[in-house]
Amino acid sequence: MKEYDVLIVGGGVAGSVAAKFAAKGGLKTLFIEKKKTPRNKPCSGIQFNYLEKIIGEKVPPSRLCNNQLDRIEMHFPNGRHVTAPFAMLNFMRKPFDDWLNTIAKEYGAEFRDECEYVRHDETSDHVVVTVRTGGKPENDEQVKARYLVEATGLMPAIRKIIRPCDFSAKYTGGALNYYINGTADLNPRTLYQFWNIEWNNTMFAWAYNKTLDDGKDYWVVGTGCNDSNIKERQEAFYKHVKEKFHVEGEIVKKEGYTVTIDLLSKDRVWLGRERVLATGDAAGLIDTVRGVGMDAAALSGRLVAKAILKADKNGTNALDEYSALMKRVVKQTRDNQKREIGEYKTNDELQAHLNKHMAKTGIGMFVQSFLNVFRSAEQQKLLPP
Ligand SMILES: Cc1cc2nc3c(=O)[nH]c(=O)nc-3n(C[C@H](O)[C@H](O)[C@H](O)COP(=O)(O)OP(=O)(O)OC[C@H]3O[C@@H](n4cnc5c(N)ncnc54)[C@H](O)[C@@H]3O)c2cc1C
């Protein structure tokens, strides 16, 4: 049986960043990804520039979309809009995550794709994990590790076994993107956000420009919600954007995602138990108020590796170390969970809320974004604050 210090399940943002920092710290690390890589991941692929600081690497231009973002335009239920300069990274997850996988490998982590977690047994000082290669049970293999890191995203494989109580029988939410090959009266360097509970009852619906595998640019129109009406909401929003911004062209790709983690549960954020540590979306660090998740995923990946290294050095408990390092992020996620816009029953209520809080949030964005330049990677304030 092969033995490792850490086995990380999931080759997305959280898993790759955890693998990089675990291997960098001298831990014998294996990270596995169930899909063949490079793999696609439904995601808008937009992030604050501080993501590079958390990852500890500068994203090469070849991994970014042709159009980077330098402006945000917010449209409100009352028909008004505001626009502000704000630079953000714009990438597709396929080249981006492939690059993250490569970095972790360069630091010495062993990587296997088309390899999935099946089950595990825990003892007081290690875990034995059954992994399956190529989807074939006859390829099942047991791997021993001192720590098992769950980084499997919105459909957490390990948490589902350990804590089935955290999941709903029905979908608790989802998102849908249309990729359009055509023209629009939109600026390809602007991120458009549309606040309206008929289109999105958790945050805002969106439109922006993306580069697909063929190197060409496409308009993306999409939305999300925390109920099962995603198609109706998306169609209504798409109709609005087509009329208002003269979007014309063929939909060449539809990409969607559904969630079964109970987003309303007070236990949504869960960092693990004993030798099993959870990161990213699998840990419930999904934050629909902030509207992004890769920064929390990357930070949790970096901090889980730090926690294991610290526990080894000091003879302490890794979960305690991890919980202490994650305190700020967990608090922010839990606080935001209480503020999700699903609680507004009408657009008038939502508008009143935006009138009250938008200016403060906007100022907070600029101030915290400026302060982040001087903060260490691990102390980054996740935006919006
Ligand atoms: C439509 C949509 C748009 C979004 N837009 C943005 C955005 O613009 N900006 C932003 O910051 N965030 C965005 N997010 C959120 C962001 O995608 C997630 O927060 C982020 O990907 C979480 O990273 P992760 O590493 O936890 O999970 P993931 O990136 O999902 O990675 C998990 C990996 O684990 C693998 N896996 C699953 N099960 C197993 C198994 N049993 N064995 C082995 N591997 C397994 C999966 O194949 C996957 O590759 C968006 C999400 C959605 C759904």
Description of the molecule:
- There is one protein chain.
- The protein has 385 residues and is of the alpha/beta class.
- The protein folds into two domains: 194 residues, FAD/NAD(P)-binding domain (3-Layer(bba) Sandwich); 113 residues, D-Amino Acid Oxidase, Chain A, domain 2 (2-Layer Sandwich), CATH 3.30.9.10.
- The protein contains nine helices and 16 strands.
- Strands 1, 2, 6, 7, 8, 9, 15 and 16 form an eight-stranded mixed beta sheet that branches. Strands 3-5-4-11-12-13-10-14 form an eight-stranded mixed beta sheet.
- A hairpin with a 2-residue loop joins strand 15 and strand 16.
- It starts with a strand and ends in a 13-residue tail after the last helix.
- The model has no long low-confidence stretch (mean pLDDT 94).
What descriptors fit this protein?
single chain, 385 residues, alpha/beta, FAD/NAD(P)-binding domain, D-Amino Acid Oxidase, Chain A, domain 2, eight-stranded mixed β-sheet, 32% helix, binds flavin-adenine dinucleotide
